[in-house]
Write a structure and sequence with these properties.
Layout (H helix, E strand, L loop, with lengths): L6 H25 L4 H30 L4 H27 L2 E2 L12 E8 L2 E5 L7 H12 L3 E5 L5 H14 L5 E3 L4 H8 L5 E5 L2 H13 L4 E4 L5 E4 L5 H13 L11 E5 L3 H15 L15 H16 L3 E5 L16 E5 L6 H4 L6 E7 L2 H9 L6 E5 L3 H10 L4 E4 L20 E2 L4 H7 L1 E8 L5 H4 L8 H10 L4
Parallel strand pairs: 3-4, 3-6, 4-5, 6-7, 8-9, 8-13, 9-12, 11-12, 13-14
Antiparallel strand pairs: 1-2, 2-16, 7-15, 10-11
Helix pairs in contact: 1-6, 2-3, 2-4, 2-5, 3-4, 8-9
The chain binds nicotinamide-adenine-dinucleotide (NAD).
Length: 486
């Protein structure tokens, strides 16, 4: 990881970031209006980069993590992002169409026109995290480019090899004036978030998100914040427990639980707690019969993140939780330096435990019980609004009660995480789990400026309605007409 920068290095780096922003903004301004074909060509180049170098990027991610499944990386970071780029190519002409808006009678008869145009904003900054380092840099990029913008990307310092490779590849596929990657640690990130971009997309933790918003506010830069939080799973009594257990286990084991949308904790009926835990255990046994030498199972990204998870489990144990390690082949984790950790289920958790205070972001799964589903709903509503919420069950009335009485960024019913991979659905959080969204048509709008264009007819509308001085009877008649209750 990068060391703290000396003052000279810092001002060099700041100067370099400002220079790239200046180059991109000047080129953006000079090139307007750019045809849709230019935007599409950029997306096609981003797709080509991923097709040509996907395997290499997956290897870089595995090296950065210690171990990360090549296949899983190809699915989540490479093909998932290629698919999103193709979706943008297919939809962007439709998204970019100007919309006619209605006007008050009789303006249309007089030849007035109202139109909404989605125009590019300019240069957009993309700040991304380490957990899906390629996807969370390149997927926002696809939509940023679809909307006709230029982009500067600052990927995470924790996946340094991947970030360096991304920088090299982007410079091969793009002119610096179109897309540029800059690398560095928190200091560079801080400088980056202080640049006067036309929009800034940040994906990362809630704590950093708040700092990013503060820095952006100084220049009134609009932000999209894709943050984290504690996404709950509500298991209804009517759920298919075996299926739910396997799906929850996968959501918690994929990338070793280091997913913003990973199910954070489970809320289960008290009389079904044993069945729920057994179902998750069975799911782990079926999908990951071994863990240490199993390439399908990822390591925790750094020693610091690993120690944090270990101390979270110890803290829960000390405060009275029952700790259940799901270790299918009873492997000896203590003598391994792979930073792999078995799924650890915590029973009898209380709110003073670290595991219930902060986002887990690893293979630890607290279980809480309820007797009536209303208790689960109240528990969720007492906490920050989560990024995702998951309900398992076939009881439609109960499902609607849970959905209509809680608030979350998104929802998957009868599975976890999956709503994020539905390209046409917007993805984002609410409040502490995020601001704004991308994916879907909403993402295109997020990175566009909705510009209102009104065309006034030749006829003097203001005079006809008595809206310009000298005011008189016509004016008062107009006012009288308006002064009616709805
Ligand atoms: P992080 O907040 O530590 O870092 C994210 C990025 O912010 C990095 O590029 C980092 O260099 C930069 N950064 C660090 N300090 C900064 C500062 N002071 N000012 C500006 N930028 C700064 O997050 P992380 O640990 O890399 O990722 C994990 C978090 O991200 C989790 O909370 C997870 O839920 C969240 N996340 C959210 C989504 C989503 O789409 N909502 C997706 C993945 C991860």
């Amino acid at each position: 990881m990068e060391r703290a920068m000396a003052d000279g290095d810092k001002s060099d780096k700041t100067g370099e970031l400002e220079r790239i922003l200046d180059v991109q903004r000047k080129d953006f301004t000079a090139a307007r209006p750019e045809p849709m074909e230019t935007r599409k060509d950029r997306i096609k180049r981003a797709i080509a980069l991923l097709v040509d170098h996907g395997e290499e990027l997956a290897r870089a991610m595995s090296a950065d993590f210690g171990n990360r499944s090549h296949d899983a990386s190809m699915i989540t970071d490479i093909t998932g992002t290629i698919g999103f780029g193709k979706y943008c190519l297919k939809k962007m002409d439709h998204w970019a169409k100007p919309e006619k808006r209605s006007l008050r009678f009789p303006l249309p008869l007089m030849g007035a026109k109202a139109e909404l145009r989605y125009e590019p904003k300019g240069v957009i900054g993309i700040l991304s995290p380490w957990n899906f380092p390629v996807n969370l840099s390149m997927a926002p990029l696809m939509q940023v480019l679809a909307a006709g913008n230029r982009a500067m990307i600052k990927p995470s310092e924790f996946t340094e090899g991947t970030s360096d490779l991304l920088q090299k590849l982007v410079s091969q596929y793009f002119d610096e004036a179109e897309v540029a990657v800059v690398t560095g640690g928190p200091e560079v990130a801080q400088t980056f978030s202080s640049l006067p971009f036309d929009h800034l997309v940040f994906t990362g933790s809630t704590q950093t998100g708040s700092k990013v918003m503060e820095a952006a506010a100084k220049n009134l830069v609009p932000v999209t914040l894709e943050l984290g939080g504690k996404s709950p799973v509500v298991l209804g009594r009517s759920a298919n427990y075996e299926q739910a257990g396997e799906r929850i286990a996968l959501g918690k084991m994929l990338n070793a639980g280091q997913i913003c949308l990973a199910p954070d904790y489970m809320l289960v009926p008290e009389d079904r707690e044993e069945a729920a835990i057994a179902a998750v255990q069975l799911g782990v046994h079926n999908m990951y019969p071994t863990l240490l030498d199993n390439d399908d199972y990822a390591s925790v990204v750094t020693d610091r993140h690993f120690d944090r998870l270990q101390s979270m489990v110890e803290d829960a144990r000390e405060k009275g939780a029952e700790v259940i390690e799901v270790n299918p082949s009873e492997e000896d984790f203590s003598s391994s330096n792979t930073r792999k950790m078995p799924l650890t289920i915590l029973r009898n958790v209380t709110d003073d435990m670290q595991a219930m205070k902060e986002e887990i972001f690893g293979p630890v799964l607290p279980v809480k019980t309820y007797s009536q589903v209303g208790e689960a709903i109240n528990y969720i509503n007492r906490r920050d609004r989560p990024l995702g919420l998951y309900y398992f069950g076939s009881d439609a009335a109960e499902r609607e009660t849970v959905l209509s009485r809680t608030i979350s960024g998104g929802v998957t019913v009868n599975d976890v995480i999956m709503h994020v991979s539905m390209e046409d659905l917007p993805f984002g959080g609410v409040g502490p789990s995020g601001i704004g969204s991308y994916h879907g048509p909403e993402g295109f709008r997020e990175f566009s400026h909705a510009r209102s264009v009104y065309t006034q007819p030749k006829i003097d509308v203001a005079k006809l309605a008595g809206l310009k001085p000298p005011y008189g009877d016509t004016t008062r008649k107009t006012i009288e007409r308006e002064m009616k209750k709805a």
